Amino acid sequence: FRQFYRCKRLGVKVILLILSPKNQPSIYLQVLAGLIQKFQSPELFQKLIQFQTTEDIIKFFYHTPLQIAQYLKVKNIVDRNAVTLTESDSLKTAIHAFVSKNIYDIPIIDEDKDIRGVVSIEDILKYSLPVHLLWMKDLRPIQNFEPVGDILRSDMDTNLADVMRTTYTTIDENVPAIQLAKIFCMNPIRQIIVTSKDKYVGVVDRKSTRLNSSHTMT
């Protein structure tokens, strides 16, 4: 009930309760994926919120059945609204995005949805440190050097093309979602870029997959 009133304050108009068998936890995400696919149409959503009786809602779902896939695909859980930037965006823009959105990696794409690279917090830190420091194994003897913040402030207008890296992990949106788990387990990465016909679609990050897993088991 606490979550219900919180949703009400946020202006949520529709709340759907999904019940799934405890011994088939993946059904939850399969049904959720079907609902997302169905309500991509704004007209269908507006029709649903106008119903006044339970009978009308039941008839609505009965006559417009969900298309539930046999298994989850990457496209069912991809974040299509993830933050992206371009090569011409500035270092200042990237830092603001990291701080305001609480993220660690940002895909760099062009207007044709081609992936140009990725910029992460580590890339910015590496860019801001003098090259000779990166080669030193032990920095403890160094007591005084220009603070990272001062270096960044002097380079805020630098284009991301000079900071980003061109190595990243991608996966096609039609691949079974279980492949994501394998990639995350076998590689020390936080984010996987999702593509369709080699064009950018969105991202899946390690944090979001943990959330989906926990929801599945409830």
Q: What this model shows, in words?
A:
The protein is of the alpha+beta class. Helices cover 41% and strands 12% of the residues. The protein has 10 helices and 5 strands. It has helices at 2-9, 26-38, 42-49, 54-63, 91-101, 121-128, 131-134, 148-154, 178-186, 206-216, and strands at residues 105-109, 115-120, 170-172, 191-196, 199-205. A 3-stranded mixed beta sheet has the order 3-4-5. It is elongated, with a radius of gyration of 22 Å. Residues 210-218 have low confidence and may be disordered.
How much of the polypeptide forms β-strand, as a percent range?
5-15%
Helix content: 40-55%
- How many β strands by DSSP? 5
Instruction: State the separation between the terminal residues, measured CA to CA.
Output: 16 Å
Largest sheet: 3 strands, mixed
Order of helices and strands: HHHHHEEHHHEHEEH
Uncertain residue segments: 210-218
Number of helices: 10
What would you report as the Rg, rounded to the nearest angstrom?
A: 22 Å
Spatial sequence of strands, sheet with the most strands: 3-4-5
Task: Round the mean pLDDT to the nearest integer and report it.
Answer: 79
Task: Supply database-style keywords.
218 residues, alpha+beta, 3-stranded mixed sheet, two-stranded antiparallel sheet, 10 helices
Secondary structure blueprint with pairings:
Layout lengths: L1 H8 L16 H13 L3 H8 L4 H10 L27 H11 L3 E5 L5 E6 H8 L2 H4 L13 H7 L15 E3 L5 H9 L4 E6 L2 E7 H11 L2
Short description, anyone?
By secondary structure, the chain is an alpha+beta fold. It has helices at residues 2-9, 26-38, 42-49, 54-63, 91-101, 121-128, 131-134, 148-154, 178-186, 206-216; strands spanning 105-109, 115-120, 170-172, 191-196, 199-205. Mean pLDDT is 79; it is low at 210-218.
